[in-house]
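Record 1 of the preview.
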Amino acid sequence: MKARILLRQLELPYERVTVDLFKGETRTAEHFGRNPDGRVPVLELDSGETIAESAAILLHLGEGTPYLPADGLARTRVHQWLFFEQSRIEAELAYARFLRLSGRHEQIPEVYENRLKRGRDALVALDRGLSDGRDFAAGDEYTVADVALYAYVHCAGDAGADPREHAHIPSWLDHVEAQPGFVNDLEPLPDHASARPV
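->
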C-alpha cells in the first residue's frame, strides 16, 4: 500500500504483481532472487534491479521530489519517522492487527496482548510527536514519512487500538488523506490467511 500511494502521487506508471505470502509464493527461489528475506513489497525497476523493504522503496521513489527533503535536518527527520514506523508501528501495531484479523490472537493471546500494548504505546509516541501543531510527522510538509506511518496507523482500530482516540493523530490522518492523488486502497486480509477453520 505504501509504495502504491506514492507511485500514484508521483504519477509514475507501474504494474502490480501480486505475490501471495499465505500460499508460500514468497518462499520460492524466484522471489528470494528479488528479496533475500522473501518479504513483500519489492519494487522492480526498469533496469531489472530490485528494491526490497517499503521504507527503502519510498526513499528511492521520493528522491528528487517534494516528498523527500534534499538534505539536512529535514531529511533526517523523515528518516527518524521511517525508522520509528518500521520498529514500532509495523513491528508491533501491524503485527497485533494481523494476529487479530487472522484469528491467531486466540491461539497466542499473550503475544497479541503484548504487541497491542506496545502498539498503543507507539500511537502515544506518534501523538506526542504531532503535539507541536504541525500538520505532518516530519514537519510542515507532507513526506514519505507520512505515507509510511499512515499505512498501519489509519487501520490500527483493527488491532484494537483506535487512532482517533488521540488528540493529534486524527487531524494528521485527515491532512494525509487530503493530499493530491492520495488513495487509500487497503485490501482486506484474504480468507485463506485466517487461522480459523473455513
